Amino acid sequence: MLKFDHLAIVVSNLDVSRAWYVEKLGLQVEFEIAERRSLALQDSEGFAIFLVEGALGEPASRPALWFQVEDVHTSSASLLGKGVSFVHAPQKLFWGYGAEIVDPDGYPIRLWDAVSMKEQSES
């Protein structure tokens, strides 16, 4: 089972976008990574939108989608069995612990689970 959980978008000015999403839409800041000029906002249901400051229109500005799965290792093995190519298998990354695939148009799709995320962030 997949649960759509996070979306990342590139914004031209993090401070302006932060103010707009917080003041206008009422989202709450979950956490901020100042050195990466990024932050996570959360809605009332726990859905997170990551804002990352960067140049719009660049390949790195493509949205990234996060799906929560029950077990990232089991889900990865299942997807491999279906012929899905991985950018990387489950591993520790700047955003936490998980795997990454891409859709047919090259959009990054990141898979994670709560247990592995917690265990790997504590190590």
Key words describing this protein structure:
123 residues, alpha+beta, 2,3-Dihydroxybiphenyl 1,2-Dioxygenase, domain 1, 2 domains, eight-stranded mixed β-sheet, 3 helices, 24% helix, globular
Oligomeric status: single chain
Strand elements, count: 8
CATH top level of the largest domain is: Alpha Beta
Poorly predicted runs:
none
Gross CATH architecture of the largest domain: Roll
Determine the fraction of residues in helical runs and give it as a percent range.
Answer: 10-25%
| Separation of the first and last Cα atoms | 27 Å
CATH-defined superfamily of the largest domain: 2,3-Dihydroxybiphenyl 1,2-Dioxygenase, domain 1
Annotated CATH topology of the largest domain? 2,3-Dihydroxybiphenyl 1,2-Dioxygenase, domain 1
- Overall average residue pLDDT: 90
The radius of gyration computed from the alpha-carbon positions, rounded to a whole number of angstroms, is 15 Å
Strand-residue proportion: 35-45%
Question: Strand order across the biggest sheet?
Answer: 2-3-4-1-5-8-7-6
Task: Provide a quick synopsis of the model.
The chain is an alpha+beta fold. The chain contains 3 helices and 8 strands; from the N terminus they run βαββββαβββα. The protein has an 8-stranded mixed beta sheet with strand order 2-3-4-1-5-8-7-6.
